[in-house]
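Supplementary Methods, section 5.1.

A reviewer requested that the exact input to the structure prediction be made available. We therefore reproduce it here, unchanged from the version used in the analyses.
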Amino acid sequence: LAAKGLKLIRTKVGDRYVVEHMRAHGFNLGGEQSGHLVMSDYSTTGDGLLAALQILDIMVAEKQDAASLLTVFEPVPQVLKNIRFAGANPLETEAVKSAIHNGEAALDKTGRVLVRKSGTEPKIRVMAEGDDPELVERVVDDIIAAIATESGKQQTAAE
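The structure derived from this sequence is encoded token-by-token as follows.
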């Protein structure tokens, strides 16, 4: 993005927060890791059909196929795992806070960690991304292990 003169800005998770930030700063394009794209010139929510039509429009205008247009896209290794819990919030324990802090320190400026409770289920989502896929996996596994120890539960299937 920087090479194209663009800057990545992170918000809280959810279209609501993306749109709030877009409005506050006059941006017309926003999105989420989940694939939601918000194009405020046309809509105020993530709209997959609209995004697909815009990509098709660019393909026609540039006379290029999708593969050619996407050569600038460099995916970052990412791991997302969920763990169920019962009772008290394990994210408030020192052991889990320490595991999260250690993961953030290990990734330093080469990645990031996001740990949050699901808004709809009794589970915690642990995501890390960064340049080193093995380190990313280890960071997530260490945080999951700390949560499992604190909550007495086992990990659910990775997403």
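The two ends are 27 Å apart (CA to CA). These observations are discussed further in the main text.
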